[in-house]
């Protein structure tokens, strides 16, 4: 837009000369008229993109697996938008920070009265930090995986992505309930029905990621699971997610207590790592802490590779059997990775009371429904320091070398 404005005000600036041929003024005015039309067209496209966000907020229903796997251009969500920019949003409060990203609660600027309560989470990633911390591939993976899975009922919805000179943006749905981790710490442990409900929603997530998209999530833990306004889960932070399909990958990533043995041994891993982490997660739901823990990470790794889980006497036999099937060192015998895939997990006796179809369509009541003052309530999120001033600029040299890698945004 800046280039168009520049052209508009500077085109045709020249030294006085002999009177022009009659066609020259017409050419000059036609250029001005064309530039004016271009500006109007750009502004109209920008308003269309903002209207699309509002329409999504009005109709936030989950898509069927078939609808989700359609090409991104056919879906209302997961698109890369060309006209949207940070200035279109009012930044309300920081919801979270990382080494190269900050997530804000936002709403559209100057909304109509009917749209004032429509809020979103805007993840802002500074390009210079992404490059400096060697996170380019992880960020690309995150954006592309979120676009592919947008519309799933239990995965954070990336409504749109966009970029400007300095930053990359992912506009996400806002989950006002905060992290499952916080509820688990307050409760110390979840009872069996609560654990089953949340575990079942995670099974549906892993089934879709693995069997429809060939994606390994690789960072399953309570801190990466949020609770939405209706008490359902949303899996967030896809920075380690990777499309592996039937191949193996070797990157060491994840959280120590949740790493699978094959990751620690660096023997190559695939989607089976998520089923191991799922077993650890179910254990933590029921007991209040993961089965393998020590202040020294190396001791944790030794325990994981040994793979001996100790169960409290109060844990039900069905829960023990599920966890032992998931936390099996041999991936060829690991529940979820054996024949039947996710269906073998869904058929386990521990899940016998779950109506999987009703659960997918969010027809079941969540066990923990957050108390909220309104759609923009942030009481379940911590306070954060303001962003530091005087940070490194994204130079033209960096832009020339790296902007091609960000073209998906």
TrEMBL record:
What sequence ranges are listed for the domain AGC-kinase C-terminal? 352-409
Feature: compositional bias, Low complexity:
18-30
Outline the segment boundaries, as ranges, of region: Disordered.
Answer: 7-46
GO molecular function per UniProt:
ATP binding; cAMP-dependent protein kinase activity
Q: List residues binding ATP.
A: 123
The UniProt keyword set, sorted, is: ATP-binding, Kinase, Nucleotide-binding, Serine/threonine-protein kinase, Transferase
Q: What Enzyme Commission number(s) does the record list for this chain? A: 2.7.11.11
- Residue ranges occupied by any Protein kinase domain in the UniProt entry: 89-351
- Tell me the enzyme class: transferase
Q: Does the keyword Membrane apply?
A: no
Catalysed reaction equations from the record:
L-seryl-[protein] + ATP = O-phospho-L-seryl-[protein] + ADP + H(+); L-threonyl-[protein] + ATP = O-phospho-L-threonyl-[protein] + ADP + H(+)
SUPFAM superfamilies tied to this protein: Protein kinase-like (PK-like)
Specify whether ATP-binding is a keyword of the entry. Answer: yes
Q: Where is the composition biased (Polar residues)?
A: 31-43
Give a single Pfam family match. Pkinase
Q: Which GO terms describe its cellular component?
A: cAMP-dependent protein kinase complex; cytosol
| Assigned protein family | Belongs to the protein kinase superfamily.
User: What name does the UniProt record give this protein?
Assistant: cAMP-dependent protein kinase
């Amino acid at each position: 837009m800046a280039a168009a404005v520049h052209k508009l005000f500077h085109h045709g600036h020249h030294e006085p000369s002999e009177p022009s041929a009659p066609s020259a003024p017409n050419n000059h005015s036609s250029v001005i008229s064309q530039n004016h039309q271009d500006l109007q067209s750009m502004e109209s496209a920008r308003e269309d993109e903002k209207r699309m966000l509002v329409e999504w907020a009005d109709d936030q229903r989950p898509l069927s697996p078939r609808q989700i796997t359609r090409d991104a251009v056919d879906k209302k969500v997961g698109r890369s938008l060309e006209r949207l920019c940070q200035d279109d949003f009012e930044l309300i409060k920081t919801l979270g920070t990382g080494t190269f990203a900050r997530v804000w609660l936002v709403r559209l600027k100057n909304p109509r009265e009917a749209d004032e309560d429509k809020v979103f989470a805007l993840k802002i990633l500074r390009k210079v930090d992404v490059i400096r911390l060697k996170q380019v591939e992880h960020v690309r993976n995150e954006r592309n995986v979120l676009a592919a899975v947008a519309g799933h009922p239990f995965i954070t919805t990336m409504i749109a992505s966009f970029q400007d000179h300095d930053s990359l943006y992912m506009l996400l749905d806002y989950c006002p309930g905060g992290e499952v981790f916080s509820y688990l710490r307050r409760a110390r442990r979840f009872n069996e029905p609560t654990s089953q409900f949340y575990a079942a929603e995670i099974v549906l997530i892993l089934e879709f990621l693995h069997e429809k998209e060939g994606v390994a999530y690789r960072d399953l833990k309570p801190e990466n699971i949020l609770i939405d306004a209706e008490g359902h889960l949303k899996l967030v932070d896809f920075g380690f997610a990777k499309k592996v399909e039937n191949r193996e990958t070797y990157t060491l990533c994840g959280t120590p207590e949740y790493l699978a043995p094959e990751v620690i041994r660096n023997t190559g891993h695939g989607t089976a790592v998520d089923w191991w982490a799922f077993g650890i997660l179910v254990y933590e739901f029921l007991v209040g802490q993961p089965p393998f823990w020590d202040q020294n990470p190396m001791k944790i790794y030794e325990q994981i590779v040994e793979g001996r889980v100790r169960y409290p006497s109060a844990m039900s036999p069905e829960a023990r059997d599920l966890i032992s099937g998931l936390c099996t060192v041999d991936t060829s015998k690991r529940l979820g990775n054996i024949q039947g895939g996710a269906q073998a997990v869904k058929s386990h006796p521990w899940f016998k009371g779950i109506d999987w179809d009703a659960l997918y369509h969010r027809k079941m009541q969540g066990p923990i429904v957050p108390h909220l003052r309104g759609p923009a309530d942030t009481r379940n999120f911590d306070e954060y320091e303001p962003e530091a001033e005087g940070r490194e600029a994204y130079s033209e040299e960096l832009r020339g070398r790296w902007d091609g890698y960000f073209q998906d945004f």
